[in-house]
Design a protein that fits this description.
Length: 377
Amino acid sequence: MTPDFLIVGAGYAGSVCARVLADAGKTVHLIDKRPHIGGNAYDERDANGVLIHPYGPHIFHTNAKKVMEYLSRFTTWRFYEHRVLAQVGEQLLPIPINRTTINQLYGLSLTEDEVQGYLDTVREPREPLQTSEDVVLNSVGRDLCDKFFRGYTRKQWGLDLSQLSAGVAARIPTRSNDDDRYFADTYQFMPADGYTAMFERMLDHPGITVRTGVDFKAVRGDFAGSHIIYTGPIDAFFDHCYGPLPYRSLRFDHQHLPDTEQYQTVGTVNYPNDHEYTRITEFKHLTGEQHAGTSIVREFPQAEGDPYYPVPRPENEALFKRYAALAEAAQGVTFVGRLAQYRYYNMDQIVAAALKTAHDLLETRDGDGGGGQASPN
């Protein structure tokens, strides 16, 4: 019997859509080309029993109460506020830049009220803010830009700050107080049993059939009567007919240190100016687990490999819009998620987009509507 929906991708977007639709009485067939569910948020125990994130650290944070409440159906939570240090010379300094960062870096003793005044003396006003370089120089000036942002950006994106859209740098604030949390969201938690356990509970429904290790193109013809929810790269869906959309990839170097209880004092340390990798994350900070050893991961950005980050440049956005027009006109298929919408969404934004997508499909001809792009709002 043909299911009501074929969902391609078992990450946040696909899994949330699957559960909402199944709870409404629909039958769902969920596939993923990887051998597991959870997408990039998938976690597992390494050979030494430490819970790690194979695809790099995933820290959940949101201001959206409805997203938090929805996911809470499938997990309990561990309170966790992520902190990041950046190595600049011989110093490890808080990032985002705050009062502590500036005082320690320059040997100052500025009060909170004086920090913004100091930044005003070093910033380089830019108008309009078109590139990430404009954003950073306008906010903190050239020296802080070069020490914390320019090198990191070159490694992460393979591009200079001046070659990236303004939105990339706008994701990281500058603070005048001593708040050293990486995120300032209302809700900052980690799934108590890990992300994979949360996804397993989400997909544990008689209306959902899950198959991993399955390529969409190989089985597409078997689901002619099903509405497709597609969460993969939008350009791949249309066989790259306008050319490939640029994505940035990552290589992960996982390491277990058997005789080291703690490798670093915070969850993540950034290396903006040294080494080929961008950062090191120690997972025990994130999970709160106890172990005689510790497991870390170094991240090496690269051009080739699995797509992780859409590259935010005007010409790439123009190319995406051509694919988005095809998606809008496509019948019987809906696109949702970071890769399908070519957007650098956080996990909570993807959950919100998936919830809206699924509810819209239920309201629109009971799931038999045309194609389109989801919205994260």
